């Protein structure tokens, strides 16, 4: 009587043979595609270049040029105040009473009475000779431009962190893909050996089926990683405007030395654009205080007037006359009922607000730096221990492979050791990318470049 296992053996062998044929066709093609992609020369994309591209691509970057144009217009307006101003005026009026001189002069001569209606059309030209507020107002315009530009840089700064996040998401998936590819190649080799043993009757079909199932699972993992990486690259491309091919290799920046220098000089680092914005705000407030004080100082200007009127300069005449006059004019408003002092005080209070805002920002940066350095130190230790763990797992996997080849252990036990090795390698790759990301985030947080 035929045993049940013997009756099922041909069916299992047929199933195994069909699966082997399918994987032999499908998997090598995928591996060949991957090998072809790896063999193609792919540009290595740097993080700093992507950050620069993101800043240049953002529409707000164009605001710097607009701010400069506005500042240039303000300065041109102030410069134009040096030029003479010319205006024309015409008026006619009737008054109910005029000056009369009721005195009879010798010889019966009477002083004429001016007419009650008068007319005057004239051109007036005025040229400033001395204006103490002009220089301070120019300083205000220049300080306003610097403040506006620094505000633009501050608003753009978060883009650097956005690029970091997308870049390292893709880099982590890239590293995990490489580890999965190595496992897939090894499983493919073992599948070929196992299939040959099954055909020769030297192994049970279940061994080959177990390896095939694990191979299919790893191919699914690889496909998931690939889709996630494509999504991260799409986000990165949208941020930077760069065309990133799926085969593009993201180069992890070597930032250990830069981080060490930054940690040694943390208290003196003021590279964040917020610091420049605080300084620009103080400069603007100082310039405004100076301009406010200069507004009450005397101003001197020259003027000239020419016209045609009745009466002209001879107010006793009743005829139309041409006339002209010229002179120097002094303008001074020393009494402002305290408004100037109140404006000065308000600007001083605003400066204190800026100082307190900077102090709060500096304190928040110290706290963030403390958290960031703690994470960097932890990942440094994790990466240092990963190599030892991977070495031990590799030794265990080599022993399991030899024992499997000798038929001492089953395919399931061999797959367990390979899974342990893969997990160790994935953990090492993850920690390495996370360490690079933590360093990059730390430098970016401080406003430093990640070259």
Provide structural commentary:
By secondary structure, this protein is an alpha+beta fold. It has 2 domains: about 10-80 and about 130-295 and about 340-445, Outer membrane efflux proteins (OEP); about 85-130 and about 300-330. The protein contains 10 helices and 8 strands. Strands 2-5-7-8 form a 4-stranded antiparallel sheet, with no helix packed on it. A two-stranded parallel ribbon has the order 1-6. The protein is rod-shaped. About 25% of the residues are buried. Residues about 1-45 have low confidence and may be disordered.
Radius of gyration, CA atoms, in whole angstroms: 43 Å
Mean pLDDT comes to 85
CATH superfamily label of the largest domain: Outer membrane efflux proteins (OEP)
Content-based structural category: alpha+beta
Task: Quote the distance from N terminus to C terminus.
Answer: 76 Å
Q: Based on the structure given, which CATH architecture of the largest domain is correct?
A: Up-down Bundle
The strands making up the biggest β-sheet line up spatially as 2-5-7-8
| Tally of strands | 8
Number of helical stretches of at least 4 residues:
10
Low-confidence stretches: 1-43
Major sheet: 4 strands, antiparallel
The coarse overall form would be rod-shaped
